[in-house]
């Protein structure tokens, strides 16, 4: 008889309150092994805060976060505070913190395509090379859950595609769960199983079924790019006020945007337009005017 194991991590209505306001609230999500969940949302919308709750770095002030017992997590943060004047070779950097077996480190560098950089100085790496090294470090620890905060930061478009390919390959070979924070509102990996759009709360979530399919996009970046990346657009029509309350299309103001509030009668945009796989996670009566920008095109 098989016993279904719980997800790697489950957030249920989780929120973090600091300095008199909710940084993010009402986040419900679960990550299973082999699944890629992507968080998108504007700057300050609570993506990193949500990731930190999933990691256990931040405890929720409401709701719950449950992680599997003995969960092994690797985290690649958004910005790494390293003294770049310090001479440090990639091989040494791979094993700088934590217990990483040298053979595992070599194998991770092979699989992420940076083995040839083992003797290079970290400070001389390009943005794309550095991100690959960061991924290699994370992979070498053989995590059950890999949390990547904006992994394509500082990487050009071609490099982004290559990195997304690599992340997909890591998921396919290691079968770890991946929580990925996307820096780009408009583009998420097509390999993403679920997109969760935050704006202080979960605006919407769903399976990405649309990939960049416009003629201009394909002409610029080619069919391969269209197969790797998806574009989402949607409209929100409520505004989050600085004090955490929510102003709705009809001008009314409520304390929050939680399920069952019955206030999602949207008729104005609230600051970010992007499309999404439309499968509202957080309410029954949510009627964001979401739509898919295009349909999936595999090259
Ligand atoms: N410890 C803290 N105390 C008070 N406010 C905080 C704290 N940490 C984060 N914030 C605020 O919480 C909000 C959400 O921050 P978070 O880093 O989660 O956003 P984000 O979506 O990851 O943003 P970005 O895309 O800019 O990285 C921001 O307005 C931030 O300034």
From TrEMBL:
<dbReference type="InterPro" id="IPR027417">
    <property type="entry name" value="P-loop_NTPase"/>
</dbReference>
<dbReference type="GO" id="GO:0010043">
    <property type="term" value="P:response to zinc ion"/>
</dbReference>
<keyword id="KW-0067">ATP-binding</keyword>
<feature type="region of interest" description="Disordered">
    <location>
        <begin position="239"/>
        <end position="299"/>
    </location>
</feature>
<keyword id="KW-0862">Zinc</keyword>
<dbReference type="InterPro" id="IPR050153">
    <property type="entry name" value="Metal_Ion_Import_ABC"/>
</dbReference>
<dbReference type="GO" id="GO:0006829">
    <property type="term" value="P:zinc ion transport"/>
</dbReference>
<dbReference type="InterPro" id="IPR003439">
    <property type="entry name" value="ABC_transporter-like_ATP-bd"/>
</dbReference>
<keyword id="KW-1003">Cell membrane</keyword>
<keyword id="KW-0864">Zinc transport</keyword>
<feature type="compositionally biased region" description="Basic and acidic residues">
    <location>
        <begin position="239"/>
        <end position="250"/>
    </location>
</feature>
<comment type="similarity">
    <text>Belongs to the ABC transporter superfamily.</text>
</comment>
<dbReference type="Pfam" id="PF00005">
    <property type="entry name" value="ABC_tran"/>
</dbReference>
<feature type="domain" description="ABC transporter">
    <location>
        <begin position="9"/>
        <end position="224"/>
    </location>
</feature>
<dbReference type="InterPro" id="IPR003593">
    <property type="entry name" value="AAA+_ATPase"/>
</dbReference>
<keyword id="KW-0813">Transport</keyword>
<keyword id="KW-0547">Nucleotide-binding</keyword>
<keyword id="KW-1278">Translocase</keyword>
<feature type="compositionally biased region" description="Basic and acidic residues">
    <location>
        <begin position="258"/>
        <end position="289"/>
    </location>
</feature>
<dbReference type="GO" id="GO:0005524">
    <property type="term" value="F:ATP binding"/>
</dbReference>
<protein>
    <submittedName>
        <fullName>Zinc ABC transporter ATP-binding protein</fullName>
    </submittedName>
</protein>
<keyword id="KW-0406">Ion transport</keyword>
<dbReference type="InterPro" id="IPR017871">
    <property type="entry name" value="ABC_transporter-like_CS"/>
</dbReference>
<keyword id="KW-0472">Membrane</keyword>
<dbReference type="GO" id="GO:0016887">
    <property type="term" value="F:ATP hydrolysis activity"/>
</dbReference>
């Amino acid at each position: 008889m098989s016993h279904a194991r719980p997800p790697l991590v489950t957030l249920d209505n989780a929120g973090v309150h600091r300095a008199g306001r909710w940084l993010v609230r009402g986040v419900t999500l679960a990550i299973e092994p082999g699944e890629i969940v992507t968080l998108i949302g504007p700057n300050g919308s609570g993506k990193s805060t949500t990731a930190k709750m999933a990691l256990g770095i931040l405890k929720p002030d409401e709701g719950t976060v449950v992680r599997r017992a003995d969960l092994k997590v690797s985290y690649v943060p958004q910005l790494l505070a390293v003294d770049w004047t310090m001479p440090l070779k990639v091989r040494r950097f791979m094993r700088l913190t934590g217990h990483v077996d040298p053979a595992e480190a070599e194998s991770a560098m092979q699989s992420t395509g940076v083995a040839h950089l083992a003797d290079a100085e970290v400070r001389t790496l390009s943005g794309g090379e550095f991100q690959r090294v960061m991924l290699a470090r994370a992979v070498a620890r053989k995590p059950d859950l890999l949390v990547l905060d904006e992994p394509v930061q500082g990487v050009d478009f071609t490099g982004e595609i290559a990195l997304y390919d690599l992340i997909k390959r890591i998921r396919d070979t290691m079968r770890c769960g991946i929580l990925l924070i996307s820096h780009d509102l408009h583009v998420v990996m097509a390999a993403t199983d679920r997109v969760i759009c935050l704006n202080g709360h979960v605006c919407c979530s769903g399976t990405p079924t649309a990939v960049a399919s416009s003629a201009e996009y394909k002409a610029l970046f080619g069919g391969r790019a269209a197969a790797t990346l998806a574009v989402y657009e949607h409209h929100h029509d409520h505004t989050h006020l600085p004090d955490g309350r929510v102003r709705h299309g009809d001008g009314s103001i409520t304390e929050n945007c939680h399920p069952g509030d019955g206030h999602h009668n949207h008729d104005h945009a609230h600051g970010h337009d992007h499309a999404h796989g439309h499968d509202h996670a957080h309410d029954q009566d949510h009627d964001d005017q979401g739509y898919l920008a295009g349909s999936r095109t595999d090259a």
